[in-house]
UniProtKB/TrEMBL annotation:
Keyword Acyltransferase: yes
Keywords associated with the record: Acyltransferase, Transferase
Domain spans labelled N-acetyltransferase: 2-177
Matching Gene3D superfamilies: 3.40.630.30
Sample GO molecular function, one term: acyltransferase activity
Claim: Transferase is one of the keywords in the record: yes
Pfam family for this entry, one: Acetyltransf_1
PROSITE patterns: GNAT (PS51186)
CDD domains: NAT_SF (cd04301)
Protein name (record): GNAT family N-acetyltransferase
Length: 179
């Protein structure tokens, strides 16, 4: 039986390690960088929040590290599913206004094919339901789509995204010079 437990602040480094593994699997190349330290600090802080945490995750412990990636007795995570609750305005189908978002599901390469992603995701979905969340969203890769469909996920709407990092700060489009 797979035992998924709630993530703790001390799991932050391993959650970020698995996040890097996830991104490498999605893009086909590894992308280490300063984002990892920032992500670890944020994960540690948000996992420590009391009340409704900013970040919640469920993890499955793996075998102790022996590959030089840490002390030999340091536990390494085999898998994780991480998400958060977003509070929006209530709506007819969502009277609590609570929506879940899953943004990090990953299984370490050594543990794939054992149902760990399913176990951690189901634990996260159960937790969301217990918090009054009425809908959970996520972005699926081609490799993960079957798992999420098996769990009941379906297309909801067309998601559109915009990278606003290149927009001038504090200047709306209509107030820009030359408009």
């Amino acid at each position: 039986m797979i035992v998924a437990r709630m993530a703790r602040p001390e799991d932050a480094a391993e959650i970020v390690r698995l996040r890097r593994v996830m991104f490498a699997a999605m893009s086909g190349h590894d992308s280490p960088g300063p984002w990892e330290a920032a992500a670890e600090e944020i994960a540690r802080r948000q996992l420590a929040e009391t009340g409704r945490p900013g970040l919640v995750g469920f993890v499955v412990d793996g075998e102790p590290a022996v590959d030089g990636a840490g002390p030999e007795d340091a536990p390494r995570l085999a898998a994780c599913a991480v998400g958060r609750i977003e509070e929006r305005l209530p709506a007819p189908g969502h009277p609590t206004g609570l929506f879940g978002f899953v943004f990090n599901v990953c299984t370490d390469v050594r543990y794939r094919g054992r149902g760990l992603a399913r176990a951690t995701t189901e634990a996260l979905l159960d937790w969301f339901a217990g918090q009054g969340v009425t809908r959970v969203d996520l972005h699926a890769t081609d490799d993960s789509e079957r798992l999420y469909r098996d769990l009941g996920f379906a297309e909801h709407s067309l998601a559109l995204s915009l990278d606003v990092s290149r927009r001038p700060n504090g200047v709306s489009r209509r107030d820009r010079p030359g408009r």
